[in-house]
Amino acid sequence: MNTPVPDYLADLLRNCKAAHGGELADYIPELASADPTKLAVALTTLDGVIYSAGDDEHEFSIQSISKAFTYAYVIEELGLQRVMRKVGVEPSGEAFNEISLDKTDEQQIKPKNPMINSGAITVHSLIPKAEKSCRAETVRLFFSKLAGRELAFDQEIFHSEKETAFRNLSIGYSLRNFNILESDPVEIVESYVKQCAINVTVKDLVNMMSVLVNDGILPRTGERILSHKTVRQVLTVMTTCGMYNAAGDWLANVGIPAKSGVSGGIIGVLPGQVGLAVFSPKLDRYGNSVRGIDIMQQMSRDMGLHLLEGVPSSRVIINDHDVKQIKPEVIVYKLQGVLQFTEAERLLRKLQDEKQCNHTIVFDLSHISLVNDVGRRMLLDGIDRLRADGHDVALIDPEHIIPDAKTDRDFEPKIYEDLEQIPD
Amino acid sequence: MNTPVPDYLADLLRNCKAAHGGELADYIPELASADPTKLAVALTTLDGVIYSAGDDEHEFSIQSISKAFTYAYVIEELGLQRVMRKVGVEPSGEAFNEISLDKTDEQQIKPKNPMINSGAITVHSLIPKAEKSCRAETVRLFFSKLAGRELAFDQEIFHSEKETAFRNLSIGYSLRNFNILESDPVEIVESYVKQCAINVTVKDLVNMMSVLVNDGILPRTGERILSHKTVRQVLTVMTTCGMYNAAGDWLANVGIPAKSGVSGGIIGVLPGQVGLAVFSPKLDRYGNSVRGIDIMQQMSRDMGLHLLEGVPSSRVIINDHDVKQIKPEVIVYKLQGVLQFTEAERLLRKLQDEKQCNHTIVFDLSHISLVNDVGRRMLLDGIDRLRADGHDVALIDPEHIIPDAKTDRDFEPKIYEDLEQIPD
Amino acid sequence: MNTPVPDYLADLLRNCKAAHGGELADYIPELASADPTKLAVALTTLDGVIYSAGDDEHEFSIQSISKAFTYAYVIEELGLQRVMRKVGVEPSGEAFNEISLDKTDEQQIKPKNPMINSGAITVHSLIPKAEKSCRAETVRLFFSKLAGRELAFDQEIFHSEKETAFRNLSIGYSLRNFNILESDPVEIVESYVKQCAINVTVKDLVNMMSVLVNDGILPRTGERILSHKTVRQVLTVMTTCGMYNAAGDWLANVGIPAKSGVSGGIIGVLPGQVGLAVFSPKLDRYGNSVRGIDIMQQMSRDMGLHLLEGVPSSRVIINDHDVKQIKPEVIVYKLQGVLQFTEAERLLRKLQDEKQCNHTIVFDLSHISLVNDVGRRMLLDGIDRLRADGHDVALIDPEHIIPDAKTDRDFEPKIYEDLEQIPD
Amino acid sequence: MNTPVPDYLADLLRNCKAAHGGELADYIPELASADPTKLAVALTTLDGVIYSAGDDEHEFSIQSISKAFTYAYVIEELGLQRVMRKVGVEPSGEAFNEISLDKTDEQQIKPKNPMINSGAITVHSLIPKAEKSCRAETVRLFFSKLAGRELAFDQEIFHSEKETAFRNLSIGYSLRNFNILESDPVEIVESYVKQCAINVTVKDLVNMMSVLVNDGILPRTGERILSHKTVRQVLTVMTTCGMYNAAGDWLANVGIPAKSGVSGGIIGVLPGQVGLAVFSPKLDRYGNSVRGIDIMQQMSRDMGLHLLEGVPSSRVIINDHDVKQIKPEVIVYKLQGVLQFTEAERLLRKLQDEKQCNHTIVFDLSHISLVNDVGRRMLLDGIDRLRADGHDVALIDPEHIIPDAKTDRDFEPKIYEDLEQIPD
Question: What is the pTM of this model?
Answer without folding.
Answer: 0.88
